[in-house]
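hey m, so remember when u said the tokens were messed up on ur end? i reran from scratch. heres the input so u can diff it against urs
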Amino acid sequence: MEPITFNPLYMERVWGGRELERVYHRTLPNPHQPYGESWEIVDRTKEQSVVDHGPLAGTSLHDLWTTRRMEIFGAEYGNHPRFPILIKLLDSRDDLSIQVHPPADLAAGLGGEPKSEMWFIAACDPGAKLFLGLQRGVTRADFEHAIAHGTVADCVHVVRPRPGDSIFIASGRLHAIGAGFLIHEIQQNSDTTYRVFDWNRPGLDGKPRDLHVAPSLASIDFQDYEPAMDTPDGDILASCAYFQTARKSLAAGQAIANPEPGKFSVLSVIEGILQSTAGRRFTMGRCLLLPRDAPPLTALENSSVLQVTLPGSA
């Protein structure tokens, strides 16, 4: 089978911008609105990827996952009723809210879903900041005092990464993306986010966005002090029970295929151009699903690709 691509779902966000249009040459739905997220591959009740090309055009990811799983994806991958990972592009022109996702052992009791994720920094402005974990010595009592006095940002550790850096964000880690980033995000299939501080700004409707103080306090890992950006293990940027992400560097003419025979992968093009055996080209910013029996893709120039796989027992 040839690579499968999907129509992106663009999300307006108060902190977003137009970098997806400028850098990746996307056509955004509204020429006047800020778009912070493009959901590239998603299988949720309200948000659904739909194939945009070829004989499967018009078919949802959910239909592929439920009716053609072995043919397209390969392994059984547990009893997931929906495709278990979600892939996004993020454009932050302003700071995101300081937030947390609930750990697996607490999520159901809080009425949410666990969400671990990883970020790959595709581009960033000089000096752009990520907010990650707590400053050393900050206690829960200190943090609660900061919430009451609007000084939460003073408690959060700041990192200034460079393009090409990455970090794994486990459920329970306090975090926020600062202004000036273009990020590829790979995550569990979840949309549960608890905002604990939103810089006292209004949302797109002019009203303050809801905060979720109680579930945030229940979810935050108060021993997570001053994390740094991750150090890759060879090609591997992140590996957990839910997904593995590798960065592959390809010279012109070099091919890339699924790393395990009989199992799919997802490719996100960071730089360069890939071409399929049928002649389709996939340029910077394109995300595609490589079915289990798809032939390799060839780099037409020096290229860099994120390759995401799913553990067979996930």
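this time it looks ok to me. Residues 140-149 form the longest helix (10 residues). if urs says something different then somethings off w ur setup not the seq
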